Amino acid sequence: MTRRLIYNAFTHVTPNHHSHGYWRHPDGQGQLDYKRLQPWLDLARTVERGRFDTVFLADVVGVYDKFRGNGDTSIRTAMQFPSLDPASLVSALGAVTEHLGFAVTSSVIQDHPFDFARKLSTLDHLTDGRVAWNIVTSYLDNAARNFGHAALEEHDERYRWAEEYVDVVYKLWEASWEDDALVTDATRGVFAEPARVHKIHHRGARYSVEGPHLSEPSPQRTPLLFQAGGSEAGRRFAARHAEATFIAARTPESAAHHVADLRARTRALGRRDNELKIIVPLAPVIGSTEAEAHARRRELKEWLSVDALQSFYSGGLGVDLSNIDPGQPLSELLQNNHVRGNVRAFIEAAPDRTVTFADLLKETVSGRFAGTPEQIADEVQRYADAGVDGFNVVPVTTRGWWTEFVDQVVPELQKRGLMQTEYAPGTLRNKISGRGPLLPDHHPARQLRDEVRQLSRDKRRAQQV
Ligand SMILES: Cc1cc2nc3c(=O)[nH]c(=O)nc-3n(C[C@H](O)[C@H](O)[C@H](O)COP(=O)(O)O)c2cc1C
User: Fold this and answer.
1) How much distance in Å is there from the Cα of 339 to the middle of ligand 1?
2) CA 229 / ligand 1 centre spacing (Å)
3) Would you list the domain boundaries of the chain?
4) The domain 6-283+369-454: what is its CATH number?
């Protein structure tokens, strides 16, 4: 294989992630079991058999309530509602797998960073270093109100918030415990050396955290860092912090532009190209012939809930689509306060015409492509040629779909060298980057260590005088 492509099984602990309305389809009703553990264990085993890198658990912490001015449509159509906590699944999934990673989405508006750092360190310990964090900043007004805020913070301010949030968790993960702090010397009765376990003394605009980190260093210390945001501020954040970023590109050509932009940004920050993996969605309807795949896709489209789709985009873009002239250009929303990356992706996918609101509502991401396993592999190759490093594979109907993908598409991808046939050893970071369990020393998380430890030593000395 020339380049190691990454595959994540993209899902959400809810009856409906992106297959709006398909939970009513006879092949979609399995998703209604989202609240039972067994189907998730089956999914993890299936995608590990297919040599996927991770189960990528998306999440939102509110109801989409912009469409028609309330959340009724989302509630009625199970549009990413109800939804359960993704992190709670991970230790169970870890117990039935050996190599598969788990990407947990968690927004800076939800857990306090002190608590969140401990939660992820716990999962990283319990899975022997197979955890990733998808860093998101939230885009739903209702999510902001659920956490005590009058409204969603201004778009770029949310990224400044994320900068402080990662600063706190980096200090806890990377700086609090020195590598040799854990002694476990039964003869001397020393478990950990106090002078090497540091308080972090963080004081910032939003957080004040003393430390030390309650967890001893986990196998990866900082879990593998994912991010998904395509605006100017989102791309700056990805280039600086992320080890993998999920971009919303809709064609190989627009992906190539986004990739070139991100590569230029990471290089300018002194990072190597392969330190930021760029991931796009792959959401195929599979058929044994092209005609069968297209017939299935047409049949599925009959089940699409346009109401649910409108509620999804209304919440994501912060506009009530029931009040919008579908002929208006989408470019009006390029500077919206919610999700900008998606709008940009829609516009860049059709550079020779005016993209309108009507274009949003033609399809959901699930089933955007239909073809035979060979045609799906051709599509994967087109994205790989555009410089993309991997895929968030979006299921079309239920978990049965994963078996189809693993049994029919994976062998074709492996035959062409487009998918790994065996896992690399070690932590998730090592499997994906081949560079060991820890972040490289020039990453901002590692750069904080000396400063935090010096501050801790100074304070300790001052107390002793
Ligand atoms: C492909 C993709 C997947 C995303 N998944 C999630 C998610 O699971 N949860 C979430 O809160 N936000 C998610 N987001 C939203 C982003 O994290 C970010 O908040 C949003 O894109 C706004 O940032 P932007 O304006 O920089 O694009 C996703 C965005 C994209 C493009």
Assistant:
1) 7
2) 5
3) 6-283+369-454
4) 3.20.20.30
